[in-house]
Specification:
The protein is α/β, with parallel strands linked by helices and 238 residues long. The protein is built from 6 helices and 11 strands. The relative contact order is 0.19.
Length: 238
């Protein structure tokens, strides 16, 4: 079964200028998903989808392929991840004259991912044809509020009453940017996740760092230094 890893890295970013090549531990953010995909040894192709020659040059330096550039039309602020992934997959299949079976999505802004999560995700999809997607999630216990038309209300019915964390209903926040593997037929029709799913329960505190602001960048820098200084988490491609 052919596996393609697609990493989205457009040039436009508002919180941090040239975010995808901003540096943490002297490495650009785009390095981290590329390195994780390479070290997992489960990907046939590792593609960076970008509209930037500068990002493309950096991505190639670290071992990714940039066989074509993303169009300006698909590089705007309001273009969905699904549309960008679909576009890159379809163009890759034409370029490489290959139909891929499994698609892997990794983001540049999530650099704290375990290589074992990638291996596990691909292994599950190869072994169990009934599973369409497998991705990382965080279990959460907090209550959520929604604001609309000047009013606040709790998002879910079970949140109307408070209870202890130990007996609270299981509620999960998806973290598909950390690791998300899906059968290619869903990406071809513009869907990131299929119908039958399985979770990778992610309880790693560092992986919750999602880099979009300068504060996030500084926090990630401190986290990498801490992990390296204390010789922790060799499973991460840092």
């Amino acid at each position: 079964m052919k596996v393609i890893c697609i990493i989205l890295a457009r040039a436009g970013s508002k919180g941090i200028k040239n975010k995808n090549i901003a540096r943490v531990n002297s490495k650009p953010l785009v390095f981290y998903p590329i390195n994780a995909a390479i070290k997992s040894k489960v990907c046939d192709k590792i593609i960076v989808s970008t509209d930037s020659k500068k990002i493309a040059k950096v991505a190639k330096r670290y071992g990714a392929l940039v066989p074509f550039y993303r169009s300006k039309k698909l590089s705007g602020d309001f273009i969905t991840t699904e549309k960008s992934l679909q576009d890159c997959l379809l163009k890759s299949e034409i370029y490489f004259k290959t139909k891929f079976d499994i698609c892997l999505f990794l983001t540049c802004t999530n650099i704290f991912r375990k290589i074992s999560w990638i291996k596990y995700a691909i292994k599950i999809l190869k072994k169990n044809k009934k599973i369409d997607s497998i991705f990382c999630v965080h279990q959460i216990y907090k209550h959520f509020w929604h604001y609309k038309n000047g009013k606040y209300r709790k998002v879910l019915q079970w949140m109307n009453s408070y209870t202890s964390r130990q007996i609270a209903p299981k509620f999960f926040r998806e973290d598909t940017g950390i690791v998300c593997a899906t059968r290619a037929n869903y990406w071809r029709i513009g869907k990131r996740i299929g119908k039958n799913i399985r979770f990778i329960i992610n309880d790693d505190p560092f992986s919750s760092i999602d880099i979009h602001k300068m504060q996030d960048l500084k926090l990630a820098e401190m986290a990498v230094r801490y992990l390296k200084k204390n010789k922790l988490d060799y499973d991460m491609a840092l």
